[in-house]
Amino acid sequence: MTEIKETSTNFANKQALADECPEAYASNIIGGQWTLVICSWLLEGKLRFSELKKNLPNITERMLTLQLRKLEENKIISRTVYAEVPPRVEYELTAIGYELKPIIKALENWGEKHKALLEET
Amino acid sequence: MTEIKETSTNFANKQALADECPEAYASNIIGGQWTLVICSWLLEGKLRFSELKKNLPNITERMLTLQLRKLEENKIISRTVYAEVPPRVEYELTAIGYELKPIIKALENWGEKHKALLEET
DNA sequence: TAATGTACTATATAAAATGTAAGTATGACT
DNA sequence: AGTCATACTTACATTTTATATAGTACATTA
Known about the structure:
Two copies of one chain form a homodimer.
Chain A: H1 9-20, H2 22-30, H3 35-42, E1 47-48, H4 49-55, H5 61-73, E2 77-82, E3 88-93, H6 95-98, H7 101-119
Antiparallel strand pairs in A: 1-3, 2-3
Helix pairs in contact in A: 1-2
Chain A binds a DNA duplex through residues 1-5, 8-11, 13, 32-33, 48-50, 53, 60-66, 81, 84-89.
């Protein structure tokens, strides 16, 4: 995250892939390590930064911030700041973000199934 | 790819997440840069290494090999070697791999929609 | 004899993602 | 004056992923 080099081959490849393959495009957006889990929690309703943090036990504040920023940039979630002290910020899925719901559910089912399959020796 | 350090925090986090959240588990498996595109091509039927390479213009042979290996390890694809010269190797989706089809299609639709949304304005 | 095609492997390096640790602003409260 | 809570930010280190380049085996073909 942090910095990406727009002259790298990697960047160019990602662009080209995303242009041609909407599934690769989607994967770039929701493929982060915590992305789907965050969305999955937000499917239940809006949450504050600290609540998200509690639900994702091992995430660092930095990572949470970065992922939320990226999701916000991609309009998957919206961010509302309340001018209070101490500050309060709420995150909520947007319409397009909420449309990930069936995909997330499908991935969950597939994941369970796949895990079972690998475990049966 | 290549080497992963089983003592790193990152590794531990991934494990923990995958244990609790099947969607994160699934994302780990299909979240590689080329993974979904490869699967998407294989949805149409078995393909040889060189055919895959042709369809993924900028991929290096090394990357293709690594991704295929990972997919094979995860039993998403199967690999058949024909004892010929020059060698011939065919890749094909397994049953569980084929079950990704609706997910891939859903991701494609979502991706298109999302792209359109970001472009308007 | 030399070149060809296929599906790789080996090594090096670059880039991206993630993690660690510390610090910031604010107003209320002690 | 000092502590607290929240939601960050910053600088830096490490780990993971991706690319670049070259090389391998071997029967067939030229």
